[in-house]
Amino acid sequence: MRKVSSNLVNLMGFVKEFKSDYDGNDSSSTSSSSSSSLDGSTDSSGGNIKQLSSSAPTMTAQARTPEPPSPKATTKEDKLPTTSKARQKKFHRHFPTVDLDEKVLNYYSCALIGDILLQGHLYITKNYFAFYSNVFGYVTKLLIPLLTVEKITKERTAKIIPNAVGVVTSEDKHVFGSLMSRDNTFRLMIKVWDAARNSAMQNSLHVEEELLVSSCIHYLQFSTQ
What we know:
Elements: H1 2-39, E1 41-42, E2 48-49, H2 83-94, E3 104-113, E4 117-125, E5 128-135, E6 138-145, E7 149-157, E8 161-169, E9 173-177, H3 182-223
Antiparallel strand pairs: 1-2, 3-4, 3-9, 4-5, 5-6, 7-8, 8-9
Pfam family, one: GRAM
GO molecular function: sterol binding; sterol transfer activity
Domain GRAM: 89-156
């Protein structure tokens, strides 16, 4: 019994000694951990995590100033067409007897209908309907003063296709077919023809008034003698 009691006493002493050693190591570890947390953080793998310095530069967001759009390049499509000058030159080259002041209002690709179709262009000016054709060197010119026109009609090619306009004068009838837009051509021809007739009528009235005034003056002068 004494031996057993002695062994128990020795065992209790060993347990107390082990417990005191364990408590001392734990407190030392806690102190070391606290000190480590003050110096720098550690990640789960045991490495130190670098802390940001208080003097790190601050990033400032700046609004980006939009660049002015580059000027649009000038292309041929942006320029105004200069076909009017070329049209005037071509017309006066074909019809040199016409005054240079005569302006071409418009022109249309068409065909003069006769024994054969003569492909060419119909020129419309303030005082003329003019047609010019050059087929394999065979040149055809037709110059119709508007004051000689008696009637303008809508016609049909081969009595079926509504793509022609007729111009009737006191001497002949000319039919221009193969027009891309017969109605537009017809309207312009009527408008120009009416304007020419109205202008001629006004000029005629003005001349008659001048003649009447001149006759009255002459009569008064004669009667006072």
